[in-house]
Amino acid sequence: MEKKHCLNCGEPIQGRIDKKFCDDQCRNNYNYQQYAASNNLIRRVNHSLKKNRNILESMIPEGEEMGKTTKERLLRDGFQFKYQTHTYETKKGSIYHFCYDYGYLPLDGDWFLVVKGKDV
Known about the structure:
InterPro entries: DUF2116_treble_clef (IPR019216). By secondary structure, the protein is of the alpha+beta class.
């Protein structure tokens, strides 16, 4: 009968015939490696979304519901335009881009209107 080997470390396995790992540590290491790449991508995207949201929030003066800023300032603060959670189109056809509950509307001349969403 052929010996089975641990999927993580390659050591021979003792015990049940359907056993895949030599111990819990090898099983945990194997599963962590399987999902680490996709989890890291999700973690990086969520981090970028949260950072974008916080940048937008900082563009609205205290006590106000909206503010204006430039593309240059957003980029300087680390805003990444490729990350957003959703868009909202008004009846007039204006499209707001949101990062959770804060959004922006591109205006003329590299200016942006920044708003806090009401029912997000």
